[in-house]
TrEMBL record:
This is Alkyl hydroperoxide reductase AhpD. Its EC number is 1.11.1.28. Residues 98-176 form the Carboxymuconolactone decarboxylase-like domain. The active site is at C131 (proton donor), C134 (cysteine sulfenic acid (-soh) intermediate). It comes from the Bacteria. The keyword Cell inner membrane does not apply. Keywords: Antioxidant, Disulfide bond, Oxidoreductase, Peroxidase, Redox-active center. Disulfide bonds join C131-C134. It catalyses: N(6)-[(R)-dihydrolipoyl]-L-lysyl-[lipoyl-carrier protein] + a hydroperoxide = N(6)-[(R)-lipoyl]-L-lysyl-[lipoyl-carrier protein] + an alcohol + H2O. HAMAP family: AhpD (MF_01676). PANTHER family: ALKYL HYDROPEROXIDE REDUCTASE AHPD. SUPFAM superfamilies: AhpD-like (SSF69118). Pfam families: CMD.
């Protein structure tokens, strides 16, 4: 499947989502690896199989096997970290923040692609999952490595568009049932 096939599944009440998907697919703000890695990581993070499959299908021809695996790893490791660190941040008992996480996260140190790309994908997934601690941490690494505010904002904009596509597809499926 492709983004065009995904747009066909977006109902008329979500026309803005279709338009945003078109804008996103034609956007050249980021490098191809950054862009298509975001498609994969955010598609997986959306937890919608239609969106996931369309975006992985769109990205597969543009990513090396290592980059495809790294984007999948970013979605996966952030799925774990976002739950844990969101809890640490929101829990009234601040002692949790002083305890070791005891979570394996080796992929973050050696993702198999440029660190900045992996961090960008991790930031976008963290935005989808709503983890403020992870958003702050990944945004700081990106800024430290010289990534512009515009590029960071583009990644989060992609995440928001992809998440809205998942919601629109689910709403259309609910109406059809």
């Amino acid at each position: 499947m492709s983004i065009d096939a995904l747009k066909d599944k977006i109902p008329d009440f979500a026309k803005d989502v279709r338009l945003n998907l078109s804008t996103m697919s034609g956007d050249e703000t980021l490098t191809p690896q950054q862009k298509y890695g975001l498609f994969v990581a955010c598609g997986i993070a959306s937890r919608n199989p239609v969106v996931r499959d369309a975006l992985i299908g769109e990205a597969a021809a543009h990513l090396s096997p290592a980059a495809l695996n790294a984007a999948k790893a970013a979605a996966t490791i952030m799925g774990m970290n976002n739950v844990y660190y969101r809890f640490v941040h929101l829990a009234s008992n601040k002692q949790y923040g002083t305890l070791p996480a005891k979570l394996r996260m080796n992929i973050i140190a050696n993702p198999g692609v440029e660190k900045i790309d992996f961090e960008l994908w991790s930031l976008a997934v963290s935005a989808i999952n709503g983890c403020g601690m992870c958003i702050d941490a990944h945004e700081a690494v990106l800024a430290k490595h010289g990534m512009s505010t515009d590029h960071i904002q583009t990644a989060v904009r992609y995440a928001s568009i992809i998440e809205s596509a998942a919601i629109a597809v689910e709403a259309a499926e609910a109406l059809a049932a």
